[in-house]
Task: structure prediction
Amino acid sequence: MPRVLILANSGNIVGGGEISLLGLLGALDRERYDPTVVCPSEGSLVPRLRALGVPVCLAPMPSLRQVPPVAALRAIPAFVRLLRQGFDLVHANGSRCMVYGGAAARWAGVPCIWHVRIIERDRWLDAPLAALASAIVANSLATAQRFRFAHWAAAKVTVIHNGVDVAAFQAAPRPSPLRTAWGGASGVRLVGNVSRLVPFKGQRYFLRAAALLAMQHKEVRFIVVGDGPLRGELEEEARRLELGARLHFAGHREDIPNVMAALDVFVLSSLEEHFGRVLIEAMAAETPVVATAAGGVPEIIEDGRSGLLVPAGDAEALADAISRLLGNEELRRGIAEAGARRVASHFSIQQHAERVEQLYARLLGARTAGRSPA
Result:
């Protein structure tokens, strides 16, 4: 059975990249592939990996932005020695770990996948890392555009959209216990945003939309789920907008299926988006969505059918779309049902894992045949 060495950028769950990696490992066919994960340190990701029955190794992966290049070079031989313990393929889940995985794979003579989840180019690293990669996985067509700088790099790219465990979201109880906790009295409508509190997620536009909606819909309450460096600024913005008790900052939560089941409308207010994993989570829970048409989002949502799309950075358009859903139960139900069907047919974790396994098989087959896997 082929052994796959999977490298993670962090030992912690930092964002969607780590959640997607956990989903892949949970769905990967263990009768066909034997994975081991390497993390740079202990953290919240490591026990989750071990709970899936995946062996975890720890190995330093110094950031090139924080240490001299020579320090990174000294770390690579450890990965070569690890690969020579019988691994057949490297799968680097991010750029930082691709520095080590790509170099070690080239040295050891095994194919290497670079899994890219971020739209923004790294002008210093993209070309050399793409050269080391046997194949590049992009999580969206928008992310794939990162490699337009050269035909040879673009030719290595396969787009594999993220997947979600549809059953886990469908199994969440309705009404969610969070609905009572957040909404209180019956008849209250809950509109929520779930994401890291960082600039590109655009939560300030969600807050401004909430302020507009609060004047029109007295029964609506607003929830912001997530944490991050902008929390203090966003709380101050909410005070300035006089949202008061109408808005609740719920912080980081692990029970996202329950969160989505509690909402009447889910809102993604991003100014840019690499893929938009939280959208397929909301859609899997049959929660209607309003989102900005940023980055990879239009690859997920069919505007007017499985969700409503608005321009990024436009609070009034965001408020109008939310109001349209709140005021039309038939539209709200139709979009929720269409969204759930779209996730089941295009974005299930099983489909995601199957496409990754197909790529593994292609690269391993090329290696066995003695051809270049690139």
